[in-house]
Design brief:
The protein has helices at 3-11, 15-24, 28-34, 38-50, 102-113, 131-136, 150-159, 162-176, 183-188, and strands spanning 54-56, 59-68, 71-77, 80-83, 86-93, 120-125, 145-148. The protein is of the alpha/beta class. The strands form two sheets. A five-stranded mixed beta sheet has the order 1-4-5-6-7, sandwiched between helices. Strands 2-3 form a two-stranded antiparallel ribbon. Helix 1 packs across helix 4 (38-50) and helix 2 packs antiparallel against helix 4.
């Protein structure tokens, strides 16, 4: 499917359909339909949208006058979430078998440097983050990047609380310097 077809297809899904495909996204038929990793990318944005947030689905931004080997250099943005005063540049990695290392964090930091300082980043992964990534995240200031692992995502999908989760994670990074707030722990405390 093209990017436009993906956007149209995901916007037709309600919460129940989204959850069903989420469970089946590793199925070869689903991967053939959506493309590897694409459903994950679009499902995160659709979940925020279903909860009332404004989103911009994946898009490309050309770098003016940047050409390497005869090709225009393009910045790929996995999506943007506008939620109650927060603007989030989303990066999604559907790597279930490998934890996320430092490269996606460094790339997102570069993207954030091209935007106004209030914009924050979120990395969503179907796995978790390596120890080097968890250490690096502490030194990426002044850019705020919040980390979402599989358990955070599945909790928010099942409880329709992506917006609430975003605000809890943002508050935690402000108050405690914690970029990886465990939303399951928050749910156990009754905060979700």
């Amino acid at each position: 499917m093209t990017e436009e077809e993906l956007k149209t297809a995901i916007k037709e899904l309600d919460r129940e359909e989204l959850m069903h495909i989420w469970q089946e996204r590793r199925n070869p038929e689903q991967q053939a339909k959506w493309g590897k990793g694409k459903f994950f990318e679009y499902a995160i944005l659709r979940s925020f949208e279903l909860e009332g947030a404004e989103v911009k689905y994946p898009f490309n931004v050309p770098f003016p006058q940047a050409i390497i080997d005869g090709k225009e250099v393009i910045e790929q943005i996995d999506g943007i979430v506008y939620e109650d005063g927060l603007t989030v540049l989303a990066e999604s990695k559907d790597y279930e078998d490998n934890n996320i290392d430092i490269e996606p964090l460094a790339k997102l930091q570069v993207r954030l440097k091209r935007r106004p300082s209030p914009v924050i980043g979120c990395i969503f992964t179907a796995s978790d983050f390596t120890l080097p990534a968890q250490v690096l995240i502490e030194s990426l200031m002044p850019h705020t990047i919040l980390l979402w692992n599989r358990s955070d995502i599945e909790l928010c999908l099942n409880n329709k609380c992506f917006r609430k989760g975003l605000h809890l994670k943002y508050r935690s990074v402000i108050e405690d310097g914690n970029h990886m707030l465990n939303l399951s722990a928050m749910a156990q405390l009754g905060k979700i």
